[in-house]
Amino acid sequence: MKLRASYGVLTVFFVLYFAARLFFSLQSDYFNSDTSYFALREIEHIKATGKPLIHDTLSYSGRDFVFMPFYYYFLAFFAKFFPEVIAIKVINSLLASAIIPAMFLCINKLIKNTKIAVISSIIGSLSPFYITMTLNDITPYSVVIPGMILIFFFFMRLDEDIEILNYLIPVTLAIVISSPVVFIVILALLMFFVICYVEKIAIKKVLFEYSSFFILFFFWTNFILYKTAFQKHGISIISGNIPEEAIRQYFNIDIGQTFLSIGIITSILGIYSVYKYTAGKKRKDIMVFISLFFSVMVLFLARLIEAQLALALLSLSLIILSSQAINDIFETLEKTKAAKYSKTIFFALMALLIVAQGLPGIFAFPQTIKGGLNEKYVSDLIWIKENTPVGSVITATVQEGNLITYFSNRKNIADTNYLLADDPKERLSDIDNIFRTSLRVEAVMTLDKYGSEYILLSEKSKNEYNIEELKYSGDNCFNIVLESYVKLYKKDESCKVKSYEN
Amino acid sequence: MKTEEMQKLVFCLIIFISVIFAYNFFRLKTDNGLFTYDEYKYIEKAQKIISDNYSGKSINENILDPLSIVLAFTGEYKLAMRLFPYLFIVINLLLLYALSRKAHMSENHRIYGMIYVLLSPLFIYIHTTFNLPLVLLPLILTGTLMFLYNSPFFGLLFFLLALWVNPWSFFVIATFLLFTFQRLKETRKGFEIFAMLFIVLIFLLLKGFSLPSTENFLQIGKEYITDIGAAYGIGVFGIISAAIGLILFLRQKEKQTAQVWFFVLLLFFSLYDKFFLVFFDLVAAYFAGFAILKIMHGNWESGILKNYVTLLLFCGLVFSCGSYLNKSYKAGAIYEERISIDWVKTNLNLDGNLFLSHYDFGYLISSSGAVTFTDKDYYLNSKEKWKIIESNDIFMSRDLRKVNSFLKKNDIRYIWINRAMKNNLIWTKSDEGMLFILKNSASFRKRYDYLGVEIWEFLQPSG
């Protein structure tokens, strides 16, 4: 395949991929996860005031937020000129589609085989984890993951051409101020230097220079922004101060299913590459991705990063590493008597890869959209806004917290934004208690603790707590004020527990 | 000293004094109070000496605390506490500069090291408050310089003064003396290592071969790094620049390992006692200066990256400094607490009745004439710290019998609670532990409740 032809195929696939993402994400007027609605509030606040929402009176009934603002500003800029949700979905899809050129550049640089590079980048873009995470959500990962892959490409190029810094530095700045998860890159770079030092691989000085710039810039920005959070949470800031129970839920992963989603073939070939280039042949460029693979693995096993993000990065790094293995196999094949069949074998293998690896990704598009918010559910949330007093605290599952603040414009007890939140562990356990307990006194006491008078029983809470209705709701203390797609219970004002005084 | 170098030094000095002056001025203006909790230790003692008309008895009682005696003799001790730091800024900077010249540091290395020192939160801390290292630093630096200038008699004199101010400074003196002898090349090869091991052994012997009290890595960070929450300490970017300097220093072909050993030795002492951190910071300044020197004057393949890295490093140092100034500027003792102490002086019977509070506020409460169950002195110097453990246990207890018997046993009559104690320092909830008992038991009477400060009286139950 000539270079131009491969670029043609790549461009066509990029357009198709972008169109598919857009098509599926525009199927729904809403976003999938609750965190998108936190992002939407931020974007709307930036659009209206030019400043991010730092102190919020609704989340946790009042708390401060801390986050990297660049991504939200970027989307707010477009949302200012075009219809908000559409602009966000289009820009987000475009950013997330950048994974294709980023993967292509990396793989092509690594193996110098455009055919394999094109196919591998297509497979990479169809990683089910990546699609699930970025298809219909406002998440900085849409820009951070392609950005990280691009940084690794520029890093490899830096070894040959110092002028590449003109691109590398702006990408680094943008990525660092988009999300703190780029510490994965720092870990990968450090691991890369350690491996190169141990294996006595010569490294150009400029790579050290760039890495020191990256690390210093990362520390500087993060210490300025997350200083208060660091003082409050200490080392658990890395995992976002997520309570142990919530982490357990995030990491409740089916190993077999995960392995299938990453892909059996790419996993085997990728791990083969890791073995080959650490135990035998030493190559600097491939070490970059081996380091990435190990860094993500370490963070994943230590439960220091989100499982979805870790799995997406693991699958992408394994696809890059497996493309090296495929290239090695064909180079060896060319030297054997089976060389005349190499084309046939190549197409067969590629077809197998696309079927085995690409199909789960293709299925992930409609499946992800199916998991989105329900129209009726949203209208019920809007009903709450119109029919409950301003300042009410609504008790709901933690995954619905951001939805209540966005659609209902009411306070929640807790949501999934745990950083800088007060007592998230206690709040989570209290919410659990409100839904699980059969004792009215206990429920009333817990609700009073947070000044909450409303309990939202949705499909989510029904499934999570395996209940059809609140066990203590059969008297005058709790009245149903909305019975639609969700049930909204209101605690009667006279329903109080006398305080325990001497 | 070259004129250009002199100009740079004077410039640094003026900037630093201006920052400290502005800091004190604004702190005074916002009514945060001029004095920190720890400074009340000197206020209390100086007050006592003055009220006893400088009697021999009161001087003898405070003979091991010469700073309080000196303050008392100034008469206007509060004014002296604010003016002394300015005087010591000039003295300390000049001494440091002279020492850096004797340490054969290049001109740029000296200047960069000095910039690090001036931006160091620790250096700012010792020059914005009245504290032990403020006086110890010039004494030890002068002593060391005297030795380097071959005046051992005067050197010893200054070291003896330092030992009087704080006996633990023996270990700093020993380390600095080792440095001096090494610099004068009066030691044999290997002597430094032997001497250092000997010093460590004595130190451990005095500490009862115990481990540092800080429990884990994060705890060390929270106590020693200002950016992570330490009341005073080193900044994150100070640590980063010193670490870079140390790595670059070790990579040199011709290097003197002595500096590295001193660095390790002072770090070791600092882990046991924060008092040593000031001196560790000086050695860290040597390496940080070295890092900045190598970064700014080294051969970089990329000029852009060199500029960015230098800029980031300086921005980081400025950030740590600014962040510390901002934090300490808001630190207590705040107005609400000071007026509660004034109230204590005039409204409570303090004879033989102890106050219970967090040890951080011990000196402040004592400045009213009251006696406290624990204070910072006890926290820092007690080996077992049983009073701290017991009081923490009582603060978190809801067992009325246990609380009553503890208070009775220790003659505690008053409990002083401020906002910081209610907001995470001890309690996180309004009815947690002892707070619940205070509000709900007849054994306690609220005597004072104004602007977040509460004083409770323990009414001893009969029988």
Written overview of the protein:
The complex is a heterodimer of chains A (502) and B (463). Chain A is mostly helical and 502 residues long. Chain A has two domains: 3-370, no CATH class; 375-491, no CATH class. In chain A, 66% of the residues lie in helices and 5% in strands. Chain A contains 22 helices and seven strands. Chain A has helices spanning 3-25, 34-49, 70-81, 84-97, 99-111, 114-125, 128-134, 141-158, 165-176, 183-198, 205-233, 244-250, 255-262, 264-279, 284-301, 307-334, 342-370, 375-387, 401-408, 424-436, 440-449, 459-465; strands spanning 55-56, 63-64, 393-395, 411-412, 452-457, 478-483, 487-491. A five-stranded mixed beta sheet of chain A has the order 4-3-5-7-6, with helices on both faces. A two-stranded antiparallel sheet of chain A has the order 1-2. The longest helix of chain A is centred in the middle third of the chain and has 29 residues, at 205-233. Chain B folds into two domains: 3-33 and 76-328, no CATH class; 335-458, 3-Layer(aba) Sandwich (Rossmann fold). The model of chain B has no long low-confidence stretch (mean pLDDT 87). Chain B is globular, with a radius of gyration of 24 Å. In chain B, helix 1 (3-29) runs parallel beside helix 6 (107-119). Chain B has 23 helices and five strands. A five-stranded mixed beta sheet of chain B has the order 2-1-3-5-4, with helices on both faces. The longest helix of chain B has 27 residues, at 3-29. Chain B is mainly alpha-helical and 463 residues long. Classes of the chains: A mainly alpha (502), B mainly alpha (463). Chain A binds chain B through residues 162, 165, 169, 204-206, 209-210, 212-213, 216-217, 219-220, 223-224, 227, 230-231, 234-235, 423, 500-502, and chain B through 218, 221-222, 227-229, 236-237, 240, 244, 300-302, 304-306, 308-309, 312-313, 315-316, 319, 323, 428, 440-442.
